[in-house]
Amino acid sequence: MRKYLKLATSPSARWLLLTMRVAIPRSIRPLVTCMLTRRCYQRTFRLRPSAESNQIFLYSLAWAAAKTGVLIHAACVMSNHRHIVLTDVRGALSDFARELHRTVAKALNAAQGQWENLWSAEQYHSLELGSDEDVIDKIAYIASNPTEAGLVESPEEWPGVMLLPEGEGKTLEIQRPGKYFANSSVFPEKVMLRVVPMMGRQLSREAISRRLGAAIKRAVARAREAVIAAGGRFLGRQVVLGQSFQKRAESYEPKRGPIPQVRARNRTLLKAILARYAEFQVRYREALDAWRGGDRGVVFPFGTWAMRLVHGAVVAQGPGYG
């Protein structure tokens, strides 16, 4: 975090970084690639791998992606949290997250005979990925997640949802699960989920494929070596599958500090994105003050989502629009 604070040269940018756990408005912009993370309530294993839970998540993911136009590049569903790397083509990230989380929660509650919260009270975390190398890093990170946690030795052994880009991409056909989805006129009998290669901005598709494959191998090898060096053992597929969804993680979790909203190796790029975030917050606050003062014609900055959707506020058009 100190690195990010040093790069945030303006007072508004520093304020943004230091208040990331406060409910600040999201800037939802089209054509942004990011990693979305969300945890289960009290770290319970509600997403524990099983044929039923895997099918529910994949169906819900395909349904939400089709409704909102997001492109899925990678995903890993652990027992008590999930990661997705995607590109938000239309600027519909919050719509996607709402559809996904609501559908998964209702379907899993029905399947598991539960009725309380599935997801943590915290909202989903979105980490904008500034460059191709940053996207590669995060896909490699989620691929190594089950190994780093001491569960299985490779992503191929993980019995839960593990979607990684392959070549020109792949398409999965997922049948509609039963129970919550049964006899529904809203949800189709089957949906298609396409896992697409990441959108190259600086690198060619061939370079991305080569670097991504190498990055995943390195990340998994490091995670495996770390578990072994610490004297740990891998639980294995069967033990993971045999765990109860009512179990919760027992490992110590230190109190978390501010969580960055952007990842960029390149310092110049990082500064530019932080400046954009800070400018959005300042202009949003100014517009919100005017709105609260009765000015219904005030223009909110490009990227405003909730005020436009809920209250019909006017939002500035972004570059290339209009």
TrEMBL record:
InterPro entries: Transposase_17 (IPR002686), Transposase_17_sf (IPR036515). One of its GO terms (biological process) is DNA transposition. Signal peptide: none annotated. Residues 29-145 form the Transposase IS200-like domain. GO terms for molecular function: DNA binding; transposase activity. This is Transposase. The lineage of its organism: Bacteria, Pseudomonadati, Myxococcota, Polyangia, Polyangiales.
